[in-house]
Design goal:
CATH class of one domain: Alpha Beta
Helix content: 25-40%
Mean pLDDT: 86
Low-confidence stretches: 243-248
Bound molecules: zinc ion
CATH architecture of one domain: 3-Layer(aba) Sandwich
Largest sheet: 4 strands, parallel
Distance between the termini: 44 Å
Strand order of the largest sheet: 1-6-5-2
Number of helices: 9
Order of helices and strands: HHHEHHEHHEHEEHE
Strand content: 5-15%
Structural class: alpha/beta
Shape: globular
CATH topology of one domain: Rossmann fold
Length: 248
């Protein structure tokens, strides 16, 4: 039964909501799931023009359709990658809290950030595949942040989210410690598919952060080698300057 307005006001007085990023007390009219104004102001979308394939911000003006230098030299195996937000400010803190501290109290704030995202480019995907964690890492963390994000991105398509097809078969060293070329080598052979569960058609691979694209490329290659026709990548956030990225 919903609380009466009086009880709701009393509850806010006794248990005032906090910003999940900086723990600052929120004003009376702001729901607990939202960020404080200062943290909210640090949230930014990627600024077009974007690389047609990998979604990287490109310098200068101009219409879409252009490619970044890396996609020109080494086209990715996926059709496209898109990220909803820049990996900076409150977004980076929310991701780190979920990923490294298994703090699921940040999920309502993340849900609010992605609630109005235009995911029309992924409507034709037949299945949604979160990037898997190696079993040992999953056991340590107790959650897979990519799977939680997939559920936030596609609340109406829970039945299409497939967590048991793509597997991480090698517990690779943290990508944070490696450069771009090493990251790709690090992930060679890191993924495999479970043959008992066949996927086909176009697959949307979901992850938390896109940095160099090494993880996205490795997942896409594995899926394409096993009967999938096309792969699109969707991440919550993207590092604007990959060289300075702290995540994969
Ligand atoms: Zn805050
Ligand atoms: Zn690109």
């Amino acid at each position: 039964m919903p609380l009466s307005p009086f009880l709701a006001a009393l509850s806010r007085l006794l248990f005032p909501p906090f910003c999940p990023v900086c723990r600052e007390r929120l004003g009376g009219g702001i729901a607990a799931a939202l960020l404080c104004p200062r943290c909210q102001s640090s949230v930014a979308c990627l600024r077009p023009p974007l690389c047609r394939l990998c979604g990287m911000e490109l310098a200068g003006e101009g219409a879409g359709g252009r490619l970044c230098g890396e996609c020109l030299v080494c086209p990715p195996p996926f059709l496209m990658a898109r990220s909803l937000l820049r990996y900076e400010g409150a977004v980076a803190l929310l991701v780190r809290r979920l990923k490294y501290h298994s703090d699921t109290s940040v999920l309502p704030a993340m849900a609010a950030l992605v609630a109005n995202a235009d995911l029309g480019a992924f409507a034709d995907c037949d299945a949604i595949v979160p990037v898997p964690l190696h079993l040992s890492r999953y056991r340590r963390r107790g959650l897979n942040q990519a799977a939680l994000l997939a559920a936030l991105f596609f609340p109406q398509r829970q039945q299409d989210i497939c967590c048991d097809h793509l597997r991480r078969v090698r517990d690779t060293p943290p990508q944070t410690t490696l450069g771009g070329r090493q990251r790709r080598g690090n992930l060679a052979g890191a993924f495999a598919v479970t043959e008992a569960r066949r996927l086909s058609g176009c697959i949307c691979v979901v992850d938390d952060v896109y940095t160099t694209g090494a993880t996205a490329r490795a997942c896409a290659t594995t899926l394409l080698d096993h009967g999938v026709a096309a792969v699109k990548i969707l991440t919550l956030a993207r590092v604007a300057a990959p060289g300075r990225g702290r995540l994969r």
